[in-house]
Specification:
5 strands, 49% strand, alpha+beta, two-stranded antiparallel sheet
Amino acid sequence: MIKLTELHQGPAAYSEKTKKNISTYELREVYVNPEYVVCVKENKALQNKAKAGALIEGLHPGVSCTQVVMHCPDHSTTNITVLGSPNQIVEDIMAT
């Protein structure tokens, strides 16, 4: 198992000011079985939000966000977004 930091999208709230739903984000630790990882790719949308300072207060604007796709026992997949570049995540996976 490897420990990663997930950028988790919390509940959205409607903003009367902008007339849009505003998403909230939080960080949490997750443990991933590297044998179930099938794909690792950049998440540019969240990286751009981080650059704009729209994710989490105090989060470095240059942070890399990576989407990790994992195989589930029921033959479906699940996706999580973690902090770190795709290269960093792959290196962590290969080191186990």
